[in-house]
Specification:
The complex is a heterodimer of chains A (149) and B (966). By secondary structure, chain A is of the alpha+beta class. In chain A, strands 2-3-1-4 form a four-stranded antiparallel beta sheet, sandwiched between helices. With 966 residues, chain B is α+β, with helices and mostly antiparallel strands. Helices cover 44% and strands 13% of the residues of chain B. Chain B is built from 39 helices and 20 strands. In chain B, β17 and β18 form a beta hairpin. Classes of the chains: A alpha+beta (149), B alpha+beta (966). At the A-B interface, α1, α2, β2, α4 and α5 of A face α1 and α4 of B.
């Protein structure tokens, strides 16, 4: 049987502001990707990826996201992801918010993406990377220190 | 992405409503009247959108039900730090002193849990096995969990548990249990009550085509009866009738018991039986109960025939003809006209002081036909030993006390009857098969009644089907061998067939005394292993006396073939080396009727079948009557109510069959000039041959390929003229139909015509007619026919002179003088083959008067279809007219119809039974008497009167010779 094949991409989002974290929605993520897609690959690139791009899972607490994209265009997306630096300006009253993604894992099924996340998180819980990650999650604060700091 | 869309869609309605309100505002300003519809449309669109959305959402939710949900922050909970800020509008703040690791770990833990659940979740409707890739699947894994990989075992073992116990209450019992004998019997007993099953129904329904209650032919029979066996065609049954033994269960005949003094009952019979049959009913033999009489029953006025009835009087010992003592009479009536007959019986019984009661369920009646029926009966019906006292000897509690006491009282009678039974059977058998006896005819006349006490036939049931032979049966009863030499029949024939059967209380007990099948069979099997006296004792303990009545039937057509009459065409009286065309022998269809008490049906039926009696159904009796070319009730009795109903049903089925075909595949009966293809129209043949016939069918006979009546107005004109002429000439009521080809006569006129219709049934008259015709005395035959007062039909046997097979609904037509000229030319043609090359005339093709209308109708239908597309509410018009008759008459006028016909084995040619109007028969005879050649030369091949026969779907006429019968 013919079926549409996808790539699932597990991401970690690093955000600049708590405001963004509070308002994190799938639309914000896809919007940010689209903007940079347009810049890098033009109309064709955004048209080929954006309609098929979807956020399958999003957790604002742990900053984890699973994206889904058609397999054919997965590479394009993967090249775009490192260049994403800010959210779409139209999203939040014409103000840019700094954001970037850390690609963790690319898989063919959502199941294996989930398996990866389990592995990832349990490792953190078992302790070896807990501190690092905890620091990273706080790291957003360091990345853009406030003028008062 | 999908999520995104959803949110977007969720947003839409809000925006929509906003825009619509704004629109509303504008429309209100411009035109207030337009507001309503517009808003309606809007709301409709909205609701449709919502619907779509909801279905989309549903699907989405279903797909994602096992996936972890998105987790977003709760703003209230997570904005605690805002209070810490000096300026609430500012988002930035001082770095906290501690990092909320615990909170983070907690959330991560939750996430992992959700992920684990999603990963473990077994998706949707797949079984554990189906989740495996194909190359890892094993067939044995479906019942052995250990064949599966460990990770799937838990899931698989869960799925392998049968559906929960909650469904156990409505659980079906397994088939094996359901098909166990006891369960089956219970179920059949439940069903038998309301369906009208005979006792042998189960046996038959497995092997026969049964009548259906929905079938109009058998709707009023109140029983489901076997029509024909599935294993063989009629030929096998014909052989059984001609040479062996055919058995039929005719328990569906209704038995009405009349009780009253002899004179009263006699008076009653006088009112319901026609004059010429009185002699056969009030015969001494019949009145004393020795003979069962068969007569035609009529309605109160004695001119409308209802059905044939078999009348059996209870024998009385006292010979004094006292008026007070009660006599009991059984009337056996066919189920089709039962209601009609009982109405008459009830009316008469109230006026004559006779009480009636229906005893249909109390008896089984089996019919044995064929020369070997005597020996079959003899070998199957084992006589009960009367010498000893039955009750004291056996201590069997199943025996009826009343019956055994009756036997003890009439010991001598019973013994005499048994001897009489054996001797008569022997005589009947010898008359058929032994050379020295062959010329003899049996002294056992038609309808002779015998009463015998017999044993339960299951005790002598052979293990395998065996053919009974006289030798084997006689070897069991050596006493008979000596007795058979002594010809002491005359004495025994005078015996009255006294039987305990006439006492209903005894009969009840006999019905109860039947041992169950398993008891007899197991005890019989036990007896197999014992020897000598023990064995006989054991079997004797099972012995059950059953009183039965036997009624002799001589051949079907025997009344037509009494000495002094010549047989049917080509028949030779030589018994040895008969011609294959000679027709059935005189005793064809002779045999016995066996009347059994109720509940004993299967106990007797199966032993008979094991004695190689071939079982038959209705078709068999119908066909064996046809073999003798005698009419069969109700099919060949169009003057009776039952016959009319039969033909109505026939009409319906034929119509259905005809019009179920697409128009292009139907026979065009107009072109064939077959006006009545579905059932014979008897009114038509009583009409004189000129003008009136045409008027009755409105359009009139269209000469071959003549142009049709052009316009409708013209048609109406001719109609009116015809009516004018016909009203002046017609004496009898006619069903004048008005509309062009919807020729369904109204019911009233139909009934009145049927009452006027009568069939010549006086047996003596028919016999003399046959004699006169075969002797060539046409003048007196004509005068006899003319003396018949009402316009009647004569039942005729149809024998094609060379070729052609009659079939039901075929037309009998009057040949023109040219046809005879042509016949002579063909017959005498030296290059031809004589009679063989006489083909008969052909009806030319006719113009179809409906052709134009039909074409118009199809065009209109096309138009309508087009219109329909445009306008859906166009009213539907029924254009399908299904005429019952066709308005085209053949060139040779129809003078009669064939009611049944087929290829006959006994004649080795086609043959049938039909009816012809007397007037036409007379004119046929008159015309043919003048034809010298026909009378002198051709008479050797076929005797006049000669007519033409044409099948409904053929244009070929065949010459047939007609012989009156009854």
């Amino acid at each position: 049987m013919v079926r549409l094949k996808h790539r699932y991409i597990a991401l970690e989002v690093v955000m600049s502001k708590a405001f963004l974290k509070r308002n994190m929605k799938p639309k914000v993520i896809t919007g940010a990707i689209r903007m940079h897609l347009n810049n890098l690959y033009g109309e064709l690139g955004s048209a080929s990826i954006y309609p098929n791009l979807s956020v399958r899972y999003l957790n604002a607490h742990t900053n984890t996201i699973i994206l889904r994209v058609r397999r054919r265009f997965a590479e394009i997306l993967l090249t775009v992801l490192p260049f994403v630096t800010a959210t779409e300006s139209t999203e939040f009253k014409n103000t840019d918010h700094k954001i970037f993604f850390r690609t963790l894992y690319v898989s063919g099924t959502i199941r294996s993406a989930q398996k990866f996340l389990i592995r990832n998180k349990t490792l953190t819980q078992s302790g070896c990377r807990a501190n690092i990650l905890a620091l990273v999650s706080v790291g957003e604060l360091f990345l853009h220190p406030s003028p008062k700091l | 992405m999908d999520n995104l869309k959803n949110t977007e869609k969720n947003d839409f309605p809000v925006a929509d409503s906003k825009s619509s309100t704004s629109l509303k505002g504008t429309t209100q300003a411009t035109d207030a009247s337009d507001k309503l519809p517009e808003s309606n449309v809007k709301s409709e669109i909205k609701s449709a959108d919502e619907k779509k959305e909801s279905s989309h959402l549903k699907k989405w939710k279903k797909r994602m039900r096992f996936q972890p949900k998105n987790v977003t922050l709760d703003p209230e909970k997570h904005e605690y730090y805002k209070d810490l800020l000096p300026d609430p509008k500012d988002d930035t703040f001082e770095l906290p002193r501690a990092v909320p690791v615990a909170e983070y770990v907690e959330e991560a833990k939750k996430e992992v849990k959700a992920m684990l659940a999603a990963v473990k979740q077994h998706s949707g409707s797949k079984t554990a096995l189906q989740t495996l890739p194909k190359h890892m699947r094993r067939r044995a894994a479906s019942h052995n969990v250990k064949r599966l990989p460990i990770r799937l075992r838990e899931l698989a073992s869960q799925q392998m548990i049968p559906p929960s116990e909650s469904s156990k209450t409505g659980e079906k019992v397994c088939r094996r249990k359901r098909r166990k004998k006891l369960a089956l019997q219970n179920e059949y007993a439940k069903r038998a009550g309301n369906q009208g099953w005979l006792e042998t129904h189960l046996w038959h329904s497995k092997r026969f085509h049964m009548t259906e209650n929905s079938d109009k032919h058998y709707q009023h029979w109140s029983h489901r009866v076997s029509i024909y066996p599935n294993d063989k065609s009629f030929r096998a049954c014909y052989r059984a009738v001609a040479k062996h033994c055919l058995i039929q269960d005719i328990s569906y005949f209704h038995c009405v018991e009349l009780t009253g003094s002899q004179i009263n009952v006699k008076n009653m019979f006088k009112n319901m039986i026609q004059q010429h049959e009185h002699s056969s009913v009030f015969d001494d033999g019949v009145l004393s109960g020795k003979i069962e009489a068969e007569v035609m029953m009529c309605d109160l006025t004695c001119d409308k025939v209802i059905c044939p009835v078999r009348i059996l009087w209870q024998p009385k010992l006292e010979d004094n003809q006292d008026t007070i003592s009660k006599h009991v009479v059984w009337c056996w009536i066919h189920p089709a006209p039962y209601k009609e007959a009982t109405k008459v019986l009830e009316q008469l019984s109230t006026t004559h002081g006779v009480s009636t009661s229906d005893r249909t369920g109390d008896f089984n009646r089996f019919r044995f036909t064929g020369p070997k029926s005597s020996v079959t009966l003899m070998s199957t019906l084992q006589l009960i030993k009367v010498g000893e006292d039955l009750t004291s000897q056996n201590s069997a509690e199943h025996l009826s006390a009343k019956l055994s006491s009756w036997i003890n009282e009439n010991k001598d009678e019973v013994k005499k009857q048994q001897l009489d039974f054996s001797l008569t059977m022997l005589e009947c058998h010898r008359c058929n098969f032994h050379k020295t006896h062959k010329q003899l005819t049996t002294r056992v006349c038609h309808g002779a009644v015998m009463s015998v006490l017999v044993n339960d036939p299951r005790l002598t049931l052979p293990l395998q089907k065996t053919k009974p032979t006289l030798k084997s049966t006689l070897s069991q009863e050596p006493s008979l061998l000596d007795a058979s030499e002594v010809d002491d029949h005359e004495k025994s024939l005078e015996e009255l067939p006294l039987s305990p059967k006439w006492k209903s209380e005894i009969l009840e007990e006999v019905a109860l005394s039947r041992l169950p099948d398993h008891v007899t069979s197991t005890r019989k099997n036990e007896a197999k292993f014992t020897l000598g006296e023990e064995k006989t004792k054991k079997l004797d303990s099972l012995a059950t006396p059953v009183p039965v009545l036997l009624i002799r039937r001589s051949g079907i057509a025997s009344h037509l073939k009494k000495p002094g009459f010549e047989g049917v065409a080509g028949g030779t009286e030589v018994t040895e080396g008969r011609s294959v065309h000679a027709g059935p022998p005189e005793d064809f269809g002779s045999g016995w009727d066996l009347i059994l008490p109720k509940k004993w049906g299967t106990a007797f039926w199966i032993p008979f079948v094991y004695h190689r009696a071939r079982a038959g159904g209705i078709r068999e009796s119908e066909h064996s009557h046809l073999e003798c070319k005698t009419p069969f009730f109700p099919r060949d009795f169009p003057d009776t109510g039952a016959g009319r109903k039969w033909w109505e049903a026939e009409m319906e089925t034929n119509l259905k069959r005809h019009y179920s075909k697409p128009p292009a595949k139907r026979v065009n009966f107009s072109v064939m000039a077959t006006p009545f293809p579905f059932s014979p129209d008897w009114d038509h043949i009583f009409l004189p041959l000129d003008g009136e016939r045409e008027s009755s069918l409105n359009v009139g006979s269209s000469p071959p390929l003549k142009q049709p009546v052009e316009s409708k107005s013209e048609l109406v004109l001719t109609e009116n003229q015809n009516f004018a002429t016909s009203f002046s000439t017609v004496t009898r009521k006619r069903s004048a139909t008005s509309s062009d080809h919807d020729v369904i006569p109204s019911k009233k006129s139909k009934d009145s015509d049927i009452t006027a219709m009568a069939v010549l049934r006086n047996k003596e008259k028919v016999a003399t007619l046959r004699r006169l015709l075969s002797a060539g005395d046409f003048a007196s035959a004509i005068s006899l026919l003319e003396s018949l007062t009402p316009p009647t039909l004569v039942c005729v046997q149809i024998s094609p002179i060379n070729r052609g097979t009659p079939s039901a609904r075929a037309m009998l037509c009057a040949p023109s003088s040219d046809d005879f000229v042509e016949l002579r030319r063909e017959f005498e043609d030296l290059n031809g083959e004589g009679l063989k090359s006489c083909t008969g005339p052909v009806e030319p093709k006719h113009w179809d008067p409906y052709r134009k209308e039909r074409k118009l109708a199809t065009e209109q239908a096309k138009k309508r279809r087009k219109q329909k597309k445009k306008d859906e509410h166009a009213p539907l018009q029924s254009t399908n007219q299904k005429p019952h008759k066709f308005n085209v008459l053949p060139i040779r006028p129809i003078i009669g119809f064939v009611t049944s016909g087929d290829f006959l084995f006994s004649y080795a040619s086609g043959g049938g039974v039909g009816f012809i109007a007397v007037d036409h028969l007379v004119s046929l005879l008159r015309e043919q008497v003048t034809n010298n050649w026909l009378m002198q030369e051709f008479a050797k091949s076929a005797k006049p009167p000669i007519a033409l026969m044409r099948l409904i779907d053929s244009t070929q006429y065949r010459f047939v010779s007609l012989h009156p019968t009854s």
